[in-house]
Amino acid sequence: MTAAWIGFAGGVLATVVSAFVALRQSRTDERLARLNHELETEQNRRAALFDRDLRAEEVLTRYREPLAAAAFDLQSRFYNILRLDFFAKFGAGERAEDALRTTLFRLAQYFGWTELLRRDIQFLSFPEDDDTRRVAQLQSEIARCFLRDDWGPALMIWSDEQRALGELMIVEQHGKVLCMGYASFRERCEDTFAPSLERLRNEVAEESAQVRLRDAQHLLCELVETLDAHRVRYTRDLSRA
Fold first, then answer.
1. What are the phi and psi torsion angles at 21 (to 5°)?
2. pTM of the model
3. How far is CA 35 from CA 29, 32, 46, 58, 181, in A?
4. What is the pLDDT along the chain (241 residues), one digit of tens a residue?
């Protein structure tokens, strides 16, 4: 009887121990599976972030030179207007229309390259890369500089108007999407761009417009400096109005 009970107890104990070991193993397996899943999820997240940042930087690299050139040309014209009396010199006489057309062209060209960059980068979110994020921030500040009403309505260009003006500049040539050159712009100036040209003619000399252009010129200089961080092309020639 005693031996039987001892045998029975031993069997129960063995079963309990076996169940306990199996339970611990099951829990260990669950923890390992959960840890592996979390590790895989984190790896995928990091890979997605890296891929997003890489694609955003590739997009910025593609537009870095034309956007920098457009920003430089526009800030240069604003500087000439504010400090070198550009329209006082050329706003009358035979060069008056050319002075207006070239000014509008530079403004529309900047909005055009900004719109092209926005289209390519809009689905990538804001990347972690400081350089890319700073470009996006400056573009946003320049846009706000034109749309804000602090200085009155003179040359106030709302967001939709900025995009519309930029869209009018976008063309496709040889399989590439880019902004039209000045020759094409001049051909379309009297019809497609006539309202913007007339507004520029009427408002550019107003004092409130001068304040807007000055703030925009400073921001455009910062944008050029960010895009040309190694001082290869433009930054030595930049002056704030």
1. -60, -40
2. 0.74
3. 10, 5, 16, 34, 57
4. 566 666 656 666 667 667 677 777 777 777 777 777 776 666 665 555 545 554 555 656 678 899 999 999 999 999 999 999 999 999 788 899 999 999 999 999 999 999 998 888 765 444 456 777 888 899 999 999 999 999 999 999 999 999 999 999 999 988 889 999 999 999 999 899 999 999 999 999 999 999 999 999 999 999 999 998 777 777 667 788 7
